[in-house]
TrEMBL record:
GO terms for biological process: proteolysis. The keyword Signal applies. This is Peptidase A1 domain-containing protein. Keywords: Signal. Gene3D superfamilies: Acid Proteases.
Amino acid sequence: MLLPSLLIVFITVQASSATINLSIFRRGGRFTDHKPCNLTHLSEILAATEQRYLTTYRGVDENRLVRRWRPTTGDDDHLLQAIGGDGSWYAALEVGSPPQELQFDLDMLGPDFYTVMTTSAEGSRYNTFASVTFDEDGSFDHAMCKRASDLFELSTSVRLSLPICTPPKASSLTLRSSGSVIGLGPPGFLTRLSGLNILDQLHTQGFITDTISSVTILDAETGVLSLGGTIAKDAEEAKIRAGIELQHFGQAEASPEWVQARVVEGMGLFDSTSVEKQFKWTKTQGPPGWWTTLMPGVWINGAKVMRNQPVLLDIQSPFILAPSEAARQFYAAIGGSYRLPAPHDMFFAIPCLNKVNIAFEMAGWNFPVMSAETTRFDSLHGPPGGPLSLGKLEDGTGYCVGVVVETRMGESSEWADSGLKRTWVLGEPFFRGLGVVFDHEKGRIGLRSY
Ligand SMILES: *[C@@H]1O[C@H](CO)[C@@H](O)[C@H](O)[C@H]1NC(C)=O
Ligand SMILES: *[C@@H]1O[C@H](CO)[C@@H](O)[C@H](O)[C@H]1NC(C)=O
């Protein structure tokens, strides 16, 4: 009887400290490729990206600044705004019995977890009638959203509450796509639905110990969202293994067992017990509600060219947005670069073949960014000019368009209370090559290089 009881202990320990890993994808595939840039198209995406940051403002709560939803005219459409079309990163989750696969757009600007049903045939729609485990009690979570729950297949079956939001029939919002949202924003002032967000639900039910979420981009269109933990250990192991295999390629002694032993040796320095030591941590700064912090330095080719830049982390931005003065300083430090003429003067051209070393200093550490290709596939199919580039400026030139783009948000009166005047947005290009953890309970961000 020893074995079964040991097994039970083992299973309990696993269950209480498990990390739930979800695959994430970029809808519509990779953002950049070998084709020359269409600047009109890029400008439209830039405008749409910026527009998402206009949904909240800096308001006062008692005597501190916090982030709040901007009132909307008529129906609250902020709940629908997080459901993107092309280009959004989403997690595919199995919901209901029999399981249906639903796409949950990642929302780093709000904490709520919900699904939206419109009358449109577009999007990924939850069919509640087809699920025998679907449950609703008729109460409301929000003027537009009913309280409901169903089983989710997350390595084990978990019942989660998933409010169902339906725009009023008379509203034009009902013509938008159906879809679902997994809010990864810090809980608090931006919570709109009375139910718990996904991390708190998993924590309350004992599936995860720590209310942390972590995003790891694997290549230009896939990645992993981990809830309750990270994939730091696997990523580190894969990196060490690849290094050893490359170094000893074709050598007789490099049998799989030999390589494995070297990997184990290499992992000796990795502290697998604590996320504390695996990541460098920085406290969030600025009005609570978004993942904002301070970037104490921007380094280009070994020189510190800027200090103390406020930043917002958001994987749904396909660019790195730099406020006007910062964008100017950034490109001034890159030889041969120049600003494109209006109307595309938010973009800068860089020589495609220049090797530029860029590091963002955060949490007391210089993290190389936009320098290494994440995969061989990316270096083959990505744009000329590598991760610092959005693609060739035009055919037959040696110039590429830089992935750091000037944003003027915060400069017009419409943005006066947005609190974003000097703020960078560190989007998807920043996440490549890094492990990023969001600690929802302690209000801090952890980073490590892969
Ligand atoms: C460039 O993008 C615009 C706007 O998205 C589009 O209308 C146009 O057809 C595109 N041009 C080319 C050459 O693809
Ligand atoms: C998720 O990843 C972590 C870290 O690599 C691993 O320890 C864990 O077993 C994974 N969990 C699942 C359910 O795959």
